[in-house]
Structure formats: structure tokens, C-alpha cells
Protein: RNA polymerase sigma factor
Amino acid sequence: MIDPEWQPEIAALFRAEAENLFGFAWAALTQGDTETARDLVQQTFQAAVQAWAELRIRSPEGQRRWLYRVLKNKAIDEWRKRRRIHLVDEVAVEDPHGEESLDVGRQVLSAAALQECWNVIAKMPPDRARVAFLHWAEDWSTREIADLLGISSSTVRGHLWKARTELLLRVGPQVPFIEDPEQEDWGRGTAS
Structure:
């Protein structure tokens, strides 16, 4: 239950910030998905209401930073739910008669390797895990990730390099989604 005394304060914050939050969610976080952007803003303000006793004593700039941080985290949670990489790839092989068929054995190995990759990524430091997820599951570019997370492109590349190295060490060459390290997007950036 919201303290009736706080309702005008929360309403004022909503009027001051909701439009800009929606614009950011729409353009940067959902890439034009209006309904998801609206949902993210609503979820962010629901979190603000729940945390209002602490949030209300912050400066307007502190409140704004809190809202954007929560909005980004809500978006990442949403992306995790909608992950584009499927656990079973359809791996076609050609039989001796020239017909293609699905190789169930390769599908199972691919699914197991992919699941192990996500297990390894889930145990990485949070920033590295976010970068890895956005890059490999959501197909975001280095620049898009850097802009979203407020870090440099070289830091994103560093996180990807470390994540790739860890995946190859822990999962091996069966990692189904890792690019060639010679691509220009790779490098030993400054991530920690």
C-alpha cells in the first residue's frame, strides 16, 4: 500500500520521467517495440513505488539514475526470457543416397554444448555475462552493447574476449556460436 502522502511525489516523478524513459526503452532497449517499451516503463515505476521510502530521499538526478538502471535491468530480464538461440539446432547431413536428413546425435551434442555454454555464462561476473548474452543471444553489436551499458567498445570487446576464452576452456571447441577471433570486432579490451 502506498502512503497517501507519497502519491503526489510519485505522480510528479512519473510526469517528469516517464516520457524520456519510454523513449529510451523504445529506441535503445526494444528497438521500436512499443508494447514492450511501455511494459518496461510500467515495471520500472512499479519497482519505484515499492522502493519509494528509499528513493524519495534521493536527489532528482539520483532518482533518474535509479530509474534508468532499473529499466535496463528489466530489459535484460525480458531478453533472457526471449532468448533467440534455441537449445536444439537442426543439423542436416547428407546420406549416401544424396538426401538430407537430421542428425539426431549431432543435435543432442549441440544442445548439450549450448546448455553448458549458458551455464558457464551464468557464472561469469555480471557485466561480462550481460555482454556475452547481448552479443551471442541477442546479436547486438559491440557499439550497441557499449551504448546500452554505458561502457566503452574496448571494454565490451575485452568482456567478449574473456568470455570466449572461458567458454573454449570450459566447454571446448563444441561451442556453437563463437565467431572467428580474427574478426575485427575482437580484441583484448580493457574489461576486468
